[in-house]
Amino acid sequence: MKHKRTLILLGALVIISCIFVYDRFVAPKSEPSLHDPLVNDFIKLYHSSGIHNRTQWLGIPTLENPCDMWSIQEIISEIKPDFIVETGTYKGGGALFYASILQIVNPKGKVITVDIKPQMEQAAKLDLFKDRVEFIEGSSTSDDVIRRIAETIKGSKVMVTLDSDHHMKHVLKELELYSGFVSPGSYLILQDTSHNGHPIQTTYGKGPMEAMEEFLKTNNNFISDRSREKFLLTFSPKGYLKRIK
């Protein structure tokens, strides 16, 4: 009887050990959630490291993180837009990135990029920029800039990315003006909705996220496509807006 109890105890220990090993090392873990604190902590760590300030495309700064860039290229590849309209040119790395994808998926595709002052001297030397990127100097919300864009893209398939002044008032104005350029089924990508504690720069004040939330209250042509955040590391949470009608 004593030996029997010992064998039962040993058997139980073996079963418990096997369960522990399976759960700890073998069993598939559920995918991390977009709301997982660990994900937000990593986004804050990544942003505070400043790596995005040293991220380049063809040697030109982009100020993007690679996961968002990858998601955007997937969208471009799917939509194959005739025009990508970008606000916030900076050094031109983003425009070059979009142009690089366009030349493969839509040989006639071009980028229109807007900024209040030209800073893309190095990018402008590249043939890709010369052939596929049109720079417009001026405020992204000015009547003249909006008129020029509207005339150029008329009748075309269009995708938009907004990455200029990130304060709520300006972003909301951009959303109102540029949303009409976006073709049904295409996207308006609102950059840096992570500002103001979503989860970075907690003291920034109302910015892209708040502008987007206000915009979506009165515009039911767009939905936030969170499937585009599948890589988890994003500076644009809820910012991939798909035009559904």
Mean pLDDT equals 89
Main sheet specs: 7 strands, mixed
What is the 3D form? globular
What is the architecture of the largest domain at the second tier of CATH?
A: 3-Layer(aba) Sandwich
How many distinct beta strands? 9
**Strand-and-helix sequence, N→C?**
HHEEHEHEHEHEHEHEE
Class inferred from helices and paired strands: alpha/beta
Radius of gyration: 23 Å
**Would you tell me which CATH topology of the largest domain applies?**
Rossmann fold
Low confidence ranges? 6-28
Q: What is the number of independent domains? A: 2
Strand line-up in the sheet with most strands: 5-4-3-6-7-9-8
Summed up, the helix count is 8
Give the secondary structure arrangement, pairings included:
Elements: H1 2-26, H2 37-49, E1 56-57, E2 60-61, H3 66-79, E3 83-87, H4 93-105, E4 110-115, H5 127-132, E5 133-137, H6 143-153, E6 158-162, H7 168-178, E7 187-190, H8 208-218, E8 222-224, E9 240-243
Parallel strand pairs: 3-4, 3-6, 4-5, 6-7
Antiparallel strand pairs: 1-2, 7-9, 8-9
